[in-house]
């Protein structure tokens, strides 16, 4: 494979993380840096460059970071000083629509010896307040013109604009789309920038999107659709074709339209929904979403959890047809539902889970364990699903013998056992 054919993150050889992992990393690093300063240990500020597909949530997490850092750093102070609250501010600049002169311009002044000199006037885009804390976010750095990039490069690498240094508590984040063929980019990049910036690539995670959607009260139809079809959270195929494409940002807008219609008229008009969602997702994706919302013909993971006997015949039909792709999709959607919604359960729901896992082929059921293993071990989702698994092993003998012990034997290479 030639260098031109390599993906951007492959050429840079940088980590590929989910949006939540990126946010957690930056939040922790900033908190640790400030904590070192409080203990009189001077460490340098880190600058960050977040690269990833458009609409994946790169700019959104910057605002979330500012809110979370406000609580993390000033939460205790703000509780005891309600009239003097402190905030971790955010200042976001859009490189494609700005020029160098929007940040700094020379201004002639008369000197003591009656000659003229120039002083620099700094705009409101430049944070100047001493003892303040914040994020200076450069959105789409690589689409700014070269003169602007030169100024922004100084901010990224020296925390200063001309001779004015940013306040010590300000950290800098650069946000970019990748330079694949579907993007037009003009990159000013050198060894110093690569050396000083912490660069990370964001990949699309349906689980991260759903956790955000549930926390942000997205419309239930959007949540259920992506839980059932997590592969539709980002439509890469349509994006590469230059068409309108589904992405986390567009799904959030679809959710807003659903809420507006429901709250205004007390019901959903699917004709209006289709027209609006088609302009956000594309007509094909909108039709699939409307069919799901209107008829819900697909097996909903929520139904497996709460009422598996009612959908068991449909699952058995997929097994009878040996529809491996559909069964795999169903298992992934069920695991996604569990890890993102984490609903309360009783003995009834535990029986439903066991019955479902015992109704599908062992290689499909094994995805349940694989999905558990893919979760961060410190996450609530990992603890939740692991707890379910342990309880089922303890109280459901059929689950323990026909599911758990079967997988253990298969994992040990007992292929004869697997095929019998």
Short key terms for the protein model shown above:
420 residues; alpha/beta; Rossmann fold; 3 domains; six-stranded parallel β-sheet; two-stranded antiparallel ribbon; 56% helix; disordered N terminus; disordered C terminus
Structure report:
- The structure is a single chain.
- The protein has 420 residues and is an alpha/beta fold.
- It has three domains: 3-202, Rossmann fold, CATH 3.40.50; 206-295, no CATH class; 301-419.
- It is 56% helix and 13% strand.
- It has helices at 8-12, 19-38, 58-80, 146-158, 191-196, 206-215, 220-228, 236-240, 248-265, 270-281, 283-295, 301-320, 324-341, 347-359, 362-374, 380-395, 397-411, 415-419, and strands spanning 16-17, 47-51, 88-94, 104-110, 116-122, 133-139, 160-161, 164-165, 169-176, 197-202.
- A six-stranded parallel sheet has the order 1-10-2-9-6-3, with helices on both faces.
- β7 and β8 form a beta hairpin.
- α10 (270-281) packs antiparallel against α11 and α12 (301-320) packs parallel to α14.
- The protein is elongated.
- The two termini are 43 Å apart.
Topology:
Elements: H1 8-12, E1 16-17, H2 19-38, E2 47-51, H3 58-80, E3 88-94, E4 104-110, E5 116-122, E6 133-139, H4 146-158, E7 160-161, E8 164-165, E9 169-176, H5 191-196, E10 197-202, H6 206-215, H7 220-228, H8 236-240, H9 248-265, H10 270-281, H11 283-295, H12 301-320, H13 324-341, H14 347-359, H15 362-374, H16 380-395, H17 397-411, H18 415-419
Parallel strand pairs: 1-10, 2-9, 2-10, 3-6, 6-9
Antiparallel strand pairs: 4-5, 7-8
Helix pairs in contact: 2-3, 6-13, 7-13, 9-10, 10-11, 12-13, 12-14, 13-15, 14-17, 16-17
């Amino acid at each position: 494979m030639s260098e031109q054919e390599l993906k951007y993150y492959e050429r840079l050889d940088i980590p590929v993380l989910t949006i939540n992992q990126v946010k957690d990393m930056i939040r922790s690093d900033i908190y640790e840096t400030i904590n070192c300063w409080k203990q009189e240990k001077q460490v340098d500020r880190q600058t960050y460059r977040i690269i990833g597909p458009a609409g994946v949530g790169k700019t959104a997490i910057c605002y979330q970071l500012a809110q979370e850092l406000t609580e993390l750093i000033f939460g205790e102070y703000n509780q005891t000083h309600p009239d003097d609250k402190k905030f971790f501010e955010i200042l976001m600049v859009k490189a494609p629509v700005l020029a160098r002169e929007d940040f700094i311009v020379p201004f002639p002044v008369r000197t003591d010896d009656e000659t003229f000199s120039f002083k620099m006037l700094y705009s409101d885009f430049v944070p100047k307040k001493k003892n303040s804390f914040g994020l200076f976010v450069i959105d789409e750095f690589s689409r700014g013109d070269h003169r602007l990039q030169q100024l922004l490069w100084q901010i990224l690498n020296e925390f200063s604009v001309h001779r004015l240094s940013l306040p010590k508590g300000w950290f800098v984040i650069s946000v970019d789309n990748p330079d694949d063929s579907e993007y037009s980019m003009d990159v000013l990049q050198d060894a110093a920038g690569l050396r000083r910036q912490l660069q990370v690539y964001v990949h699309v995670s349906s689980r991260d999107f759903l956790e955000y959607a549930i926390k942000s009260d997205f419309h239930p139809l959007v949540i259920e659709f992506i839980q059932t079809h997590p592969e539709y959270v980002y439509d890469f195929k349509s994006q590469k074709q230059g068409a309108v494409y589904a992405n986390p940002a567009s799904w959030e807008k679809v959710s807003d339209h659903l809420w507006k219609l429901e709250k205004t008229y007390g019901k959903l008009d699917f004709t209006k929904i289709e027209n609006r969602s088609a302009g956000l997702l594309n007509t094909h994706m909108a039709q699939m979403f409307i069919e799901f919302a209107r008829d819900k013909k697909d097996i909903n993971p929520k139904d497996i959890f709460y009422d598996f006997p009612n959908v068991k015949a449909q699952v058995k039909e997929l097994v009878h047809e040996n529809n491996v792709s559909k069964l795999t999709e169903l298992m992934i959607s069920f695991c996604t539902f569990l890890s993102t919604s984490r609903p309360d359960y009783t003995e009834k729901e535990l029986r439903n889970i066991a019955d479902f896992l015992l109704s599908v082929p062992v290689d499909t059921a094994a995805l349940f364990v694989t999905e558990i293993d893919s979760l961060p071990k410190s996450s609530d989702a990992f603890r939740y699903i692991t707890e379910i698994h342990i309880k089922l092993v303890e109280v459901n003998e059929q689950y323990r013998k026909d599911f758990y012990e079967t997988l253990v034997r298969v994992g040990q290479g007992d292929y004869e056992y697997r095929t019998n």
